[in-house]
Specification:
This protein has about 90 residues and is of the alpha+beta class. Helices cover about 25% and strands about 40% of the residues. The protein has two helices and four strands.
Length: about 90
């Protein structure tokens, strides 16, 4: 499903989505195809559900957005780790 379809089905809602197809471009993660997991009236509940899904299914990409957003894009973070004493 594309983001504009999600916006039409769930206007002014918080949704948790699973990325089916996504790509990275210039520091952004862009979701091209998605599946709706659940809709919410409250951002906190959507965030809790998204975090739980990420914890139980770490190989999948889950995000939560409000359908008023024009695009589904996530700023990627570069992880800089600290090495311990081997």
């Amino acid at each position: 499903m594309k983001w504009n379809e999600v916006q039409n089905l769930y206007p002014n809602e918080w949704v948790v989505i699973e990325a089916i197809q996504a790509h990275s471009d210039d520091g952004l993660r862009l979701v091209d195809e998605m599946a709706i997991v659940q809709k919410f009236d409250d951002s906190f509940e959507a965030m809790k559900q998204c975090n739980e899904l990420q914890r139980t299914r770490p190989a999948n990409e889950f995000y939560f957005f409000h359908t008023s957003r024009p695009r589904v894009e996530i700023r990627e973070r570069r992880w800089i780790g600290i090495r311990g004493r081997g």
